[in-house]
Amino acid sequence: MTAFRTDWGSISFDDRMSTSEFRIHERAHIVVDGDACRGCSTQECVVACPARLFVPTSDGGVLFNYEQCFECGTCYLVCNTEGAISWNYPEGGHGIVFHQT
Amino acid sequence: MDFDAIVVGAGPAGSCAALELARAGKSVLLIERGPFPGSKNMYGGVVYPRILDELVPQWWEEAPIQRWVTRRSTMIMTPTQALTIDFRSQNWAAPPYNGATAYRPDFDHWLAGKATDAGAQLLCSTVVTGVLRDAAGAVIGVRTDRPDGDLTAKVVIACDGVNSFIAKEVGLYGKVDAANYTLGVKETLALPKEVIDERFGVRGREGVDFEVVGCTEGVNGGGFLYTNLDTVSLGVVLKLPRLAAQKKRPEEIIASFKKHPAIAPLIEGADLKEYSAHVIPEAGYKMLPKLVGPGLLVAGDAAALCLAAGIWLEGMNFAMASGMYAGRAAAQAVTRGNTGPDGLKPYLEMLNSSFVLKDHRKLQHIPHLVLSDRVQNQYPAFVANIVERMFRVDNPAPKPGLRRIVREERKRAGIRWRDLLSDGWTGMKGFS
């Protein structure tokens, strides 16, 4: 069986994210309620966010980033805990800028 | 009032709405939150612009498309097998064409230009943060994130995308259920044009459209691969609750799709040029919100008008058409001086008598079937194993009859006759 080169598929996540353009605004457009997340056993946002913006912490909470957000809405849609994720759009002209999509 | 109409979102729905209003001689403001129209937009990669015949005659002479789809392949996949139904037609390589691959930032930007050419005002880098309402609750404008950013209009058309905060604020959606949505993630992969032409068997501006079922690691969804001029768009669409429940990362599912023996040779050596993601309203007719509110119309993804019916995967055509009808209905309402619920109701009639709601109604049971566990996780192996045994030569054993193969493979796949017949019936009824 011919082995095809497949290593280009396994680029680091940082390299993957660096291919998208983000015009970052100083205001976070995602706000997470730390207490609600500590009580959440499933933490769907951690798995589903395509930009990996949600990271579990050792004390059972969730750390989040807003800078490299695709503004897709996955996090608040999958979240099981009412009100844990407050999400709106970044300031006009900021955030993700797609080019060849 | 500052404007006859304000259209929120300069995607395909918003630009067609604004174009229609401007051509009817109405003052219209088109608001876009990105730095330019299309900058927030991604999709799988194929658009069927037939509806543009009505709005931009000979659109194919100027629209920024990548390739014309002349080859459509539907692939049923298991980790080691792939069954492909491959269709090509040279009839789609010439005007008036059928489907095309295009980059949304190019295409949407071009379409918004049609609206501004016709007299619509475009305001970019501006987020609509809410609606303005009169004492009776009717929408009379929008609030933006600009200083003194309140703007009033006789009609507001919400084309603000799948997350439509406007439709939700006005109460047009019931409870939002994650099960109605999928996440699309894709990689734009660079390859020289001649390599793409050779690997996919196309020439010039001809292109291919691959749709794949069974390649998403048990997370209900599907895969796709489309050719652009010197890139390919490759990605997966994943049902949201299942993605979260199965603890599989989107980029890992893409990586495994790319390694499949049927896909890997096609993209060998390609470098990742851009990674992107977007949510899709995938549940069809059943998830549609109310499309008319007081002083408000909703179109495109904001209205969940998107068709994920297996062999048909369409969204932009529904966006362009619903936007066009919204603009037309709004213009007529302004002319008559009645922008109340009665005055805006013709929008629903236009949608009902066009393909927009006819297709959604007709195919209302299909999205659920396509994303069902059996279609996703049992049928691909069932079908692939039948074909494998048909083509496998088991000498000295004689060839088994097809009936025996089907019976044995059905058992092996653990599929009940009852379910097979019922799904077959749903499919037959749904598509016929």
TrEMBL record, chain A:
The keyword Electron transport belongs to this UniProt entry's keyword annotation: yes
Q: Tell me which residues make up the 4Fe-4S ferredoxin-type domain.
A: 28-59, 60-90
Key word Ribosomal protein present in the record?
A: no
User: PROSITE patterns annotated for this entry?
Assistant: 4FE4S_FER_2
Record Pfam families: Fer4_9 (PF13187)
Q: Name one GO molecular function term.
A: iron ion binding
Which of UniProt's keywords are assigned here? Electron transport, Iron, Iron-sulfur, Metal-binding, Transport
This chain belongs to the protein called Unannotated protein
UniProtKB/TrEMBL annotation, chain B:
Q: Which UniProt keywords apply?
A: FAD, Flavoprotein, Oxidoreductase
Q: Which prosthetic group or cofactor does it need? A: FAD
The answer to whether keyword Flavoprotein applies is yes
InterPro entries to which the protein is assigned, alphabetical: FAD-bd (IPR002938), FAD/NAD-bd_sf (IPR036188), FixC-like (IPR039651), FixC-like_C (IPR059103)
Domain named FAD-binding is located at 3-189
Residues forming the FixC-like C-terminal domain are 368-429
Q: Which GO terms describe its molecular function?
A: FAD binding; oxidoreductase activity
Q: Name one Pfam family in it.
A: FAD_binding_3
Q: Which SUPFAM superfamilies match?
A: FAD-linked reductases, C-terminal domain, FAD/NAD(P)-binding domain
Q: Which PANTHER family match?
A: ELECTRON TRANSFER FLAVOPROTEIN-QUINONE OXIDOREDUCTASE YDIS-RELATED (PTHR43624:SF2)
- Give the protein's recorded name: Unannotated protein
